[in-house]
Automatic annotation (TrEMBL), chain A:
UniProt keyword 4Fe-4S present: no
Source species, domain of life: Bacteria
Name the UniProt record assigns to this protein: Arginine ABC transporter permease protein ArtM
Family recorded in the similarity comment: Belongs to the binding-protein-dependent transport system permease family. HisMQ subfamily.
Key words, A-Z: Amino-acid transport, Cell inner membrane, Cell membrane, Membrane, Transmembrane, Transmembrane helix, Transport
Bilayer topology term: Multi-pass membrane protein
Subcellular location: Cell inner membrane; Cell membrane
Biological processes, Gene Ontology terms: amino acid transport
An MF annotation (GO) of this entry: transmembrane transporter activity
Alphabetized InterPro entries for the sequence: AA_ABC_transptr_permease_3TM, ArtM/GltK/GlnP/TcyL/YhdX-like, MetI-like, MetI-like_sf
Residue ranges constituting the ABC transmembrane type-1 domain according to the UniProt record: 16-224
Main location: membrane
Automatic annotation (TrEMBL), chain B:
Entry keyword Membrane: yes
Transmembrane region(s): 38-59, 85-107, 134-155, 189-215, 245-267
Alphabetical keyword list: Membrane, Transmembrane, Transmembrane helix, Transport
Organism: Leucothrix arctica
Cellular location(s): Cell membrane
Protein name: ABC transporter permease
Amino acid sequence: MDWLMSTPFVQDIVILFKPALYNIYFALVSIPFGFPLAILLALGKNSRNRLIASFSKVYIYAFRGSPLFIQFFMFYSISLACNQSLWKPLGLDGLMLNPLFIGPLVLILNTSAYAAEIFYGALQTIPKGEIEASRALGMTKWQEFRTTTWPNMLRLAWPGYTNEVVFLFHATAIVYFTLPVINDQKDLLNKAGELFEKDYNLFLHFSVAALYFLVISMILFYLLNLVNKYLNRHLKVRSNLKIKPSYIR
Amino acid sequence: MIELIPDWLGNWLGQDGLDTIKYLTNGKHMAWYSSVKFTLIAAVLGGVLAVFFGLMGAAMKQSKIAPLRWIGNIYTTMVRGIPDVLFLLFFPLALEQLAELVMAYMYCSPEQWSNATGWPVCREAQWLLSTNEYLLMACLSFGIVFGAFAANVIYGAMQAVPKGQLEAAEAFGFTEKQILWRFQIRQMWVYALPGLSNVWLLLLKATSLLSLLQITDIVSWADRLGAPNYLSMAGLVHPDWRWKYYLVLFIFYILLTMISERFFAFLQVRASRGMARSN
């Protein structure tokens, strides 16, 4: 066993385990907040209220139309500019400038825009007949939403949402390129870069980091596919999500 | 710059307005504006390379030779599991090391080889990249990464070309190569355009990462210009204005996205001339 543990490859896997937890943390914190926000934005974009609809449209367009890299810089510098006048008096400066807080915050804002567009697309393709049927049954607006719109939207949007979650996980790689690295809080790419600077062994360190990303992405696919199966359980044809690249984001 | 403004406009703007214009047109700001060229070059050259790699990848994916098909499939799947930033950092460094290895074989003596403790092997074999070389490397990595996305789009579009047309071409005695180039690739653009538009928008947004490759692009300039300045010798004294500069970049990218969308909509209309439409 000792010879195995001393191979550079295995050593790298061990060293990069803790950094990988930071990437997982950023993704796992962002998903539960990004999901409901995305649903709200999608419903907002679909709403008849002009004000809500145009706000959602502008929000989604702005966050999808600009790079996440810039969004990180922008929100961090805004937070930094508010530090003296706002956060310090409120005693929030430790929180508002902490990458572990502001990183997920920007990721949530970003992913909710992308996911909202996916859910909005699904809302547009809900079978008309089903909505008419629920109206014919005399359902209230809420009942119609709960029994027809919601399950259909979720089912139709799920493959796209799966992609978005994986992209979100990949996006965590740039958090620490934009926000300050505190002590030894390094994520996969930072740590891989640090290891590279020590011995210039590019292929080893970067492939181990890539392996971590690959494996965690696979696990995400697997878990989200289970949900997909659950959502489509009433259909005869089981649709499996395939690990096949998608170009839509 | 300031002397180009006519008197009447200067009077109307007042001293404050003139000072603002003076500040916004000083040397550093002009350098910032001109650094937009890096972004645009990386996007356009990267996009052209991406289409090239995309065509190669798509052709490989539908190749009859199994190993080629495997390579094509691995190439198009890699972007699914690994973030683009990793490739963007990896490819330039890998190419640099490869070049240095070749240089080491050419210039380093055997003694230097045996005495070498790290990298590079000897001083002659060290390649310090200039901005232009980094930019080319960045374009190449953009081409490789987004070529994988484009390969998927192009592969799908190739499959969408009506089979009957390809069979007709075969019946007319066209060779396989002719069918690929004159029928399948010629006709797939209409189907590929929406997907390629998406890839282009992704690529455009990825150009903001150029500063990671030691290129002083718009992002690094924004950081420098916005940093607080307390010395009147170094220009206007101002607090931390970085958020203003990043806000400008935020809007700049949204505008680029808008223009691109318009352009692709125009292309789509042009490309679908003569196509039968169901709606």
